[in-house]
Design brief:
alpha+beta; four-stranded antiparallel beta sheet; three-stranded mixed beta sheet; about 30% helix; about 20% strand
Amino acid sequence: MFEQVTLEEHISTQKGFAFKSKWFIESGRKIVKVSDFTADSINANNLVNISEELGNQYSRYSLSTGDVVIQTVGSWPSNPASVVGKTIRIPKSVHGALLNQNAVKIIPNRTMHIGFLFYLLRCDDFKEYIIGTAQGAASQASITLESIKHYKFFLPDFNAQTAIAEYLERYDNLIENNNRRIAILEDM
């Protein structure tokens, strides 16, 4: 029913750029760094900026709402807040920002639903696989594009992918709504 494939057959990638800190200014085009990653999104509160002119020169690094991004440099699993291989999705609040180094945007082709891709790269199987390919010292790990591309998985047809992604998104939205309600009740 499902065929086993490698990720590389169904995606393309865009690495982030090494923006220079001397370019950072008070306002302008936002830059997303891996230090801005949350568990599954971006904390937009402390993003740095470069000039709009520079931003236009580096527009190929632009992020869009819903893009899937993987952290390629970070910590080992003992520090989950910054673990290498962390997969996030770009929120509306960061649309148009530019992707900094140490992260890669994963772009699905027409055979893969972007929501399915996001949940696939957040599953325990991918996390274990990618940590197993990581290299580095005790304090910092890194993964390669090749290791991401060589991940093997079973790919359902596009309609099934869509159904799976929609189901998981509804579940995540329910959790998010419940967490907001809990926070409101705690404040009261």
